[in-house]
Predict the 3D structure of the following.
Amino acid sequence: MAVEVVREGAVAVVTVNRPEALNSLDAATNEALLATARGLAADESVRAVVLTGGGDKSFVAGADIAAMRALTPEEARQWGALGQAAMDAVATAPQPWIAAVNGFALGGGCELALACDIRLAAENAKFGQPEINLGITPGFGGTQRLPRHVGEGWARYLILSGRIIRAEQALRIGLVQAVYPKDELMAEAMKLAAELAAKSPLAMRYCKAAVGAAAGTDLVTGLGVERDLFALAFATEDQTEGMTAFLEKRTPEFRGR
């Protein structure tokens, strides 16, 4: 299977598994990724997701160029729409998604990492949007998400030059949140996922929605969204449990209600 899911308690580990093609995204893989993300979003027992690539060389090396080369403009539009739908399903999931970038994250692979909430990288990871070197533009959200994460200047630099950067530079510009030795990456990703899985799933959903609103609206409107979600949290049992546990100096047990 191009996309595999393994459960470890409340954490789902999703692996893009086409190592023979460096986990590149063809149509079937994008469709599988879309179905997987939607399925996990609907599963309330899943509290956090770790996304990684199969094999030891690549997270996702990009879109499958052999499959793209002969596309007509209309077919390219459909290809981009499918890829964007898969990325959007990851980005809008109620659970936090952690990208464990274990190698190449280029083109569609960088775009997939950008769709996740948090990006952790191995020391050997490499990032880039090299589409311009193929005579095309990014098509799975890179022109929109990359500026929101690293600022317009760095986004223009990466997209217009097509250059590839190493994990240390990705960390410096804010593209990733942490870099680890390769053999420690998954353990650190799972540790973070377990920590996030223990949070209130309702508060997690509201926090994601509020932060997501910040990128697409003005400050006044965004503050209104935050205020409404803040108030909504006080209608939940999780809020009562969280504050009661704090006052009682114990670990809260959130039930998503």
About this structure: Strands lie at 3-8, 11-16, 48-53, 58-60, 97-101, 104-106, 118-122, 126-128, 164-166, 178-180. The longest helix spans residues 73-91. The CA atoms of residues 37 and 89 lie 6 Å apart.
